[in-house]
Each structure stands twice: as C-alpha cells, then as structure tokens.
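Repro:
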Amino acid sequence: MLRVVIAEDEALIREGLKREIPWASLGMEVFGLAVNGLEAVELCRDCRADILLTDIRMPLLDGLTLIERVKELPGGVVCLIISGYGDFQYAQKAISLGVSHYFLKPLELDQIEAKLREIGARILLERRRSAEQQLMGQFVSKVLPFVRRQYFLELIYGPYENREVARRLSALGALHDGSYCAAALVQVAFDGAGQRNRIIEQRQRRLLHNRHYRGEDIYLLKRTDTEALLVVVFVGDDPEELGASLSRYLREVRLLGSVRAAAGGSVHQSVGRLHESFVEARKELLLQNLLRRSGLASPPEPGEPRAGFDFRGVEEALSSGNTSRLEELLDDLEATLIESPGSERDRTAVLIELFRTLSRPAEDSGINLETAFRRSEEGAVYDRSDGASGEIFSSLKKIALETAARHSTRREKPARYLIDKARQYIEQCYSAWDLSLEDVADHVELNPSYLSAVFKSVVGVNYIDYLTALRMEKAKQLLKDTRLKIGAVARMVGFQAPGYFGYLFKKHFGLPPSEYKACLES
C-alpha cells in the first residue's frame, strides 16, 4: 500500500478527504493527518510517505516551504496542492518544485480520486522498473565476468564471429569493439597439485594484479601439477598508453619469484585483432623458454641474422614444401654454427631468426610448437660439441622438415578425422568448467589457432559455441529428472554460476530453466 499524508488546517476538509476518498481501492492508506506544516514534515519523515496532499496556507510552515522540505527526504515523495487561491504565482512556484497537480477549492473529489489513481499507477510502475533495473544490475555483475571470459578465450584463438556477444558487452559498457588491445602470457610456477583450476585462476589473478593492470581479464589457459599458463588481456582507447602499460606490467611481473617467463604481443586496433597479439606473445614466450632451458640468454632485440645466410630461401622452401632444398640450407647453417668462432650470443641471434622464420609456416600446417619442442627434447640423446645452441638447432630442424613435408605431401590426417576426435574428447569432458581449446588441441596434437580455424570450417560453429550448445542439450536432459535442482544441473554441465547458466539456457531455448522445469512438473 502507498502511504499518504494529508496536511490541511481546516478540520472539515481534512477529515472529509480521509473519509470520502476510497483509499483502499486506490492501493493507498492515509498514514496521518497534519494540522500544520511542521507536523506534516515529521509525518512524511516517520512513515516514508509516498504521497503528500497539502494546502498552500498552513500554520507554522506554508505549503510551498513544506514541499521544499519534503523533497529533501529520501524516497521521492509525490506532492499535490489544494488551495482556495488561484493566484498564478502559487501555481508557478508549485510547478518549479515538481508538484504533480494543483487543485483549487471548492474541491471536486472525483477529480482528486482520478488523479490519485493515475499517480499511484505511475509510482508502482516506476518502482517495478527500478526493481528490475536493480535485479538486472545484480545479474550483470554476476554474469558479466563469465561472458567476458567466454568472449576473450575464444577471441585469442581467431576471429570470433558471434557479434551478439560483442554487442551485449558493448551495451553493458563492458567492452567497445573499436578499442585497442594487446595480449600477454605469463608462466607461473606453483605448488598446487590438488587445487582446482578455478582456485588456481583466482589466486594467480590476485598475484598478477599490479598498479599497471587492474587484473579483471586474467585467465588460466592450461596447467600442470607445478606450472600454470595464464593470458592477460589489455584493452584501452589510447594505443601508446596501452603499449606503455603492457611494457611496465611485464617488467614488474618478471620480478615476481613465481613467474618463470612472461611475454607480450604488440598493440592492435580493435579487439577483433586480439588473436594477432596473442600469437605474437605465444611465440615470444616459447622462445624465452627454449633459451632459458638451454641456458642461453636472450638478447634484448632479435639481432641481425648471420651475414650471407639465406633465411628467405628457408622461408620459400618451407612454404613450397621443398624438403631437399630446405635440408640443404639447414645443413649449411648447422655447419656454420658449429665451425664459426663467433660468440654464443651471435649463435643465439641466428637461432632466434630461424625460429621466427619457421614458426608461422609450422603453425599454419597445424604443428603445435610447444608439443613439438617437448617431444624433440624428450626423445633426443645429445653428444654434441656445439653446446646448447646445437640442441635447439636440432629441434628447429626437425620441426622445419616436418613443416615442409606437410606442405609438400598434404598427407596429414584429414580434418574430419581430427575434428571427430576433438568432438569425442569434448563429449567426454564437457562437464569440466574450464575445458579449454588448449586442452582439446593438446589431445588432438594440433596448435590451438589451427584447431580453431579447422573446427569452424568442419563443424560450422566456433568451439565455444559448440561446447555451449552441447552443455545446453545435456542440461535439458538432466532437468527432466525433477529431483535435481537447477544449481546442481548447472554444475553438472560445467557452469560455476547458476545465473550464467540460466542466461545461456534462456538464450538457447527461449525460456529460463525454472520455467522449463515447471513445464515438466505440471
């Protein structure tokens, strides 16, 4: 019920208004009758009045001053004036105070009742809207982080064509597609074999948050029992400021004792190009790890390649699949590295140039560079006189020859076979909330960016959309068991937050899970 205060010094009018107007049918109740302005202020404050009906001429405090005082109270009281004076200056002042209506004596009760009914309906409508906005705000605050996570984790592996997600994020003020972006990768050592990935992500996010980065977009990509790889997404409107923040952030993060390596990509315009920055960061991180594991110090800059060596020829042999020419060039380079009296730093610069020359063709052919280097190192037995640079060169040579062979013969496993294998793995692991493209790519032995592109070409949808649709269908089946609560179903299909699950379920099927469940139970 809406609470009403009547302020009128004439007892006959005051009591008549209370008695003659059908307040209950209007959804209202008269909380108090005031005989002067000061009493009216106290009544409005005590009951948190919704409506004040007051005369202009009042003892102690006139009606207009009363309205000024009441307007200062919290809650937004709707004020109506009754008066025997038709002077325009009163009406003008009342309008300036936001008075909803001005009634002249003698009063027409039917008119007052109609206006009160109209005002009551407006107050209730505004309150419903306010409540809905508050609920939406609470919903957004809970769901938005999951929507951003989904969006960025898909975007880093290639162009994400679900423009609806981008539009929703933009409408919520959470992301602007035209903003500049950059990605960084941080490799962290931790002692947490028994920790769940969600806990790892939360703890590492707090650890990696510093004065150069607020830390709202730091996501776990993959982990082992002793190490975690996280992506850090930078978004901003000023490219120079964003680049400077990224550089400062990486310098500080590398000083943390638990950080093994950290690398960033360049700044790109539009978040749609986040993938490019991510690929750059990934290559730099892999290179850092190769040099670190081999005990080689990475020069501040890539360095100039050894004079006279034909790196362009290596690139052409890779792309054309000319394995004999590639092997000839690499043998010449290996001999130069072994026989040259140059410093280890010079040899390192050449290895870096070779790595950057072959990394893009290798990834385009589907090779997962991290996996390839790991296998090469695990299976190798070195008895070399050329030291650490020779070990790295041996791995690079194997990857280069495999890349050229793929380009030459195209006998790699058919895309349909690989995607079927990926889909089987997703079917087995969909209930894991953090099942990532990294996990699936490792399973099918492809690099994630290549898998993302092939998955879309074969299946027709992005990985994240496919996974979401699968989870929704599984949830639909589980909800048929009316004994299961919605929160339990959400967790069973890989969602931490029931609110986010409900948002996606309604988006997918057109009604929230509670209504779907109710339909099954009726």
